[in-house]
Fold this sequence. Notes:
- By secondary structure, the chain is of the alpha/beta class.
- About 35% of the residues lie in helices and about 30% in strands.
- The chain is globular and about 60 Å long.
- Pathway: Cofactor biosynthesis; ubiquinone biosynthesis.
- Pfam families: FAD_binding_3.
- GO terms for molecular function: monooxygenase activity.
Amino acid sequence: xxxxxxxxQMDILIVGGGMIGSALALGLSRQGWQVxxxxxxxxxxxxxxxxxxxxxNAFEPRVSAISLASQRLLDELGAWRRVQDxxxxxxxxxxxxxxxxxxxxxxxxxxxxxxxxGTIVENRNIVRALFEELADSEVTLFDGVRVKAWHxxxxxxLEDGRRLNAHLVVGADGAMxxxxxxxxxxxxxxxxxxxxxxxxxxxxxxxxxxxxxxxSPTGPLAFLPLLNEAGDDHFCSIxxxxxxxxxxxxxxxxxxxxxxxxxVAIEQQLGEVLEVSERFAFPLRQRHAKDYVTDGLALxxxxxxxxxxxxxxxxxxxxGDVRALLEELARAKARNLAPDxxxxxxxxxxxxxxxxxxxxxxxxGFKQLFARxxxxxxxxxxxxxxxxxxxxxxxNRMAAEAMGITE
Length: 407
């Protein structure tokens, strides 16, 4: 990776060096494209090692449940081995239940002949691993600066006044993507009227390398297993999605009251919640770009779609975008086509829109199903969960789809 070398003309320019944008930059560089990557933070900040996690406040609140399919992509890019050198926790089981009923589903990696169902990783550790790998690449990095404007075929303008040009610009600049807004790519979106509370906790009992999720009418609560450097298996990252009024009430509680409320909400599955880190809350909104591409521009990750966190699939959908775009651009390279070829971009969009919309619709269906409190609906969903749990072939097929191991 080189810092800005004064070259303002590239094949592909990626805006946003987070988990998705940096992976795409690395993969495209390996294909031989001349790639530029723009990131608001500095490379030094992104590769700075995390302090050892001796307490709950040392963990990053933002984590991702990386599926085996996403792990394979990161492994192909050379970054997964670096992720494994940092804090991470593979989870072997998952238990999901209805807090207002008797329905329960249990997934076990052993039934799928896999070592894990996925891996919980702090987002910053994924970014660090990718930037460490980028250091040995030919990617030109424009760090510590943001994009001020996109001028279509005339390229992008940075806040420091520089102009950069590329055949293809890729927006990996997150849910509030300015590139998407500047390009006029319309979205379908709606507010869930929920907020997600995230923090890290330490529990009396081991998490048993299990992801726990309890549904209630006001929203789901997930306990995702973490490990520190010493291998302490009593830490979890929580994502507590609640209706806005309830989320605000919970955020207003003092630490002791919140700790007790959290233990009640998870039904003491891991014993007493002993410690709680600083809490953060953010509003939940589903958003999907009607088109992922336009003339000379493509969107990936949250810039193209955001999803409810109840199944932890946000990062995995983004990595699905990365894989599809890498494959289409590799095909373009082999045929001596430009990276902004309209048919190349159309194939990328066609491959990803259907899969992303299917996952988004499924998550919306789950949310609506568990938000209903009428007795017939409650009976139906609990009966369905018990029925599904007793059909291992169907249950494991669903798990394999989510893990990306159906190939």
